[in-house]
Amino acid sequence: MAKHIQSLERAAAMLRLLAGGERRLGLSDIASALGLAKATAHGILRTLQHEGFVEQDPDSGRYQLGAELLRLGTTYLDVHELRARALVWTDDLARSGGEAVYLGVVHQQGVLIVHHVFRPDDSRQVLEVGAMQPMHSTALGKVLTAFDPVAHAELVDAKREPFTARTLTELPDIERVLERTRAQGYATDMDETWEGVASVAAPIFDRHRLTVGAVGITGAVERMCRDGELRPELVAAVRDTARSVSRDLGAKPF
Amino acid sequence: MAKHIQSLERAAAMLRLLAGGERRLGLSDIASALGLAKATAHGILRTLQHEGFVEQDPDSGRYQLGAELLRLGTTYLDVHELRARALVWTDDLARSGGEAVYLGVVHQQGVLIVHHVFRPDDSRQVLEVGAMQPMHSTALGKVLTAFDPVAHAELVDAKREPFTARTLTELPDIERVLERTRAQGYATDMDETWEGVASVAAPIFDRHRLTVGAVGITGAVERMCRDGELRPELVAAVRDTARSVSRDLGAKPF
DNA sequence: TGCCTTCGTTCGACAATGCTAAACGCTATC
DNA sequence: GATAGCGTTTAGCATTGTCGAACGAAGGCA
């Protein structure tokens, strides 16, 4: 007996395929990409369409993701306990730090942003909730990798893309950073993911002292750093926030 | 041969069930709610969990929606053509109107919010992207019902909940309003969904002159209305925005 | 503390179920 | 106006998911 339901696995693969390709995809593309007969792919797509997970463009006949996914994805956020507990604290962090705040959890081979507070100025910013960040180069990713064994295992398999000249891609280098992250209790990212952008992040624990996520702030290096080092007051603010959320989740402070 | 794949329909029903119930649900609850054997429900849930659509609380064993739904839901927004085209115009509408702007599409028996621009002041507001609004009482819902035959058909079947004393729930009353909506090209909502809140919305058409969505602004009646009527300049601004987006989508202006 | 219920999970056999391959109508293209 | 490609439908076979019953492990009640 198979471990997983075949049609469901295929349906999930289709959704991920549609999420990957920028444009809409045709039935033949989908079928060949997954190695399925056209009729098989069609049956799955028809059901997904009926359930609202997939939509079909009437003109071209091409398929794209459906609206029900947005509704369910938002509902996921509503039920998310870590996010609900963090909401209270992240606004304060954004205000005191003067920078954008991100709350992330481990998902597949990256960090999924579940909450995002804009930098408190009037500049136009795009909400990044639901977006993914890389594990090996961002402060959120590094802190999660350092404290979450599952994330650490994923890191080894993941392909570690170099985004800038300062991105660490070799495992030994990264392991050394993770060691230091564990020792100091927070992680940083200076020019390793985006040029001119720095970030700090600290881990959030639940009542079993398991790492369930991380908070961090991200901003221009010029504002975040002083003398080539991250401003200590920012690091302290981030760590305080992480501790507050952890306490709300039931984590005992040692 | 069945019209739809059984296991997929059941999986979708589970996700919707999990989205409905506020709290996490146990396996037995899910199985009995859908009339399935526990083993059957378990097999589906195991696959959904493996794909990231469902997560299981290690302590209680209960199930909740998974992070992959958030990721896919966000991707849906990224690919959404109407939303992409509307982004440019909605900011201007929010600024000129001084109120919150919503962009909605028909989904199931309601309006799914696919874009939301905050009212341009410094008050704290929660993003409502991914949320649903009722069809029969909001300006967005009424305008979509009036111009989209599919939405109109859904309205008849839907249960029309009375939210305030002014909510219309009887079909003949609603039909009369829809008639007027079609005639004047926009719809309004004054105290019909939330007490003290008014809204205006206008339809957006694609190149086939099919209604693909609607834009509207929502705010306190005191600001939105004058002498018991919606301020004409707000109505004009909303309709201009709808026309601009329609033109961007390829709709010919008659 | 010990019994008992109830939970999530596993097992094995059956037949209903979803898969495959081939043919269909259709639209665009040259 | 022929052709190549699309999405869709059909029929039959065997794979696949479903079911009922039994399992170990928690949690509640006395």
Explain how this protein is built.
The first copy, chain A, has 254 residues and is α+β, with helices and mostly antiparallel strands. Chain A folds into two domains: 6-70, Arc Repressor Mutant, subunit A (Orthogonal Bundle), CATH 1.10.10; 80-248, GAF domain (Beta-Lactamase, 2-Layer Sandwich), CATH 3.30.450.40. Helix content of chain A is 47%, strand content 20%. Chain A has ten helices and ten strands. The first copy, chain A, has helices spanning 6-20, 27-34, 38-51, 67-79, 81-97, 139-147, 149-157, 171-184, 221-224, 232-248; strands at 54-56, 63-65, 100-107, 110-117, 132-134, 187-190, 197-205, 211-220, 225-226, 229-230. In chain A, the strands form three sheets. In chain A, strands 5-4-3-8-7-6 form a six-stranded antiparallel beta sheet, with helices on both faces. A two-stranded antiparallel ribbon of chain A has the order 1-2. Chain A has a two-stranded antiparallel ribbon with strand order 9-10. In chain A, a hairpin with a 6-residue loop joins strand 6 and strand 7 (197-205). In chain A, helix 2 (27-34) crosses helix 3 (38-51). The N and C termini of chain A lie far apart (46 Å). The relative contact order of chain A is 0.11. Chains A and B meet through helix 1, helix 3 and helix 4 of A and helix 1, helix 3 and helix 4 of B. Chain A binds a DNA duplex (30 and 30 nucleotides) through residues 1-2, 5-7, 26-28, 36-40, 42-44, 46, 56, 60-61.
